[in-house]
Amino acid sequence: MISHLHPYNINHLHDAEYIKRLGEGAFGTIKLYKCKEKENGCTCNQYFVVKCMKKNKRKKTDAYLKHLRKCLLNEYTIGTLLRHPCIRETLDVDFKDHCIIFEYCPGSDFLDLINENKLTMKDEIYYFKQLIDGVSYMHDIGIAHMDLKLENIMIDYVNKKVKIIDLGKARIFHDSLHISTVIKDRGIHGSLPYIAPEEFSDEEYNPEKIDVWSCGIILFEIIYHLCPWRKACKRDSLYRNYLYYRNNDKIDGYLSHISSRELILTMLNPNPDERCHLVDIKDKLIALD
Fold first, then answer.
1. Which of 103, 97, 104, 3 is nearest to 53 (CA)?
2. What single-letter DSSP state applies at residue 192?
3. How many CB atoms lie within 10 A of CB 289?
4. Cβ-based neighbour number of residue 228 at 10 Å
5. Which CATH architecture does the domain made up of 7-103 adopt?
6. CA atoms in the 13 A half-sphere facing the CB of 229
7. CATH class of 108-288
């Protein structure tokens, strides 16, 4: 299955051993493999992850398989452009079995750790800063994640490292030759509580600002250990309350954590044109220490 992995970095994983299933979702399954010891003396015992896309048995048409291949190619291609310690490394793709191979990230996702109260507030902020470093790097080279949420942030709490995962919805919003030109997107991407309000309109929007909004939701969850609303639209009463407090200068009664208040308001600005860029908030993160 993984006979064509990149020879310059994982040539020794050809006859990998299946270890266990790590998870399953609407997209398919995540499986853990381990490099076997080889006759040539390789003894690295490296683990890696294989994401196998779910194949709909009722949709084995040429059009569906072409769509599946396109999704694989998009996630793989964008993944290979990213080289950052806070982003899970993309290693290879297998179109025959509809799989993508990634580095193995030991630990738990951020949501589980917060729900289980395994982290101090200081640790949570420390990991949030790593998240901002990783996403800022993506934005610097013109890539938006488009599905940032606590479940897509792996935490290796032994080594205190963050790994951003799941680039399946990632988009390129500018290229290196036209850095000031934004390639806009349209439609709804990501998980409902993290989706920015402009995604629910029929208009085009800047994908970069979508990530900023999602990071603002993540910061809110870190500070208050709850999600602020189910959906950022006026039909949602919790979101309406936020807009009321925000627009009537009563936000002090809504956001009680003083040192994070300005930052959350800046990131969760309903107007994407007034929403900050992640690079602009790095200095403000110092106040969260």
1. 97
2. G
3. 9
4. 20
5. 2-Layer Sandwich (3.30)
6. 20
7. mainly alpha
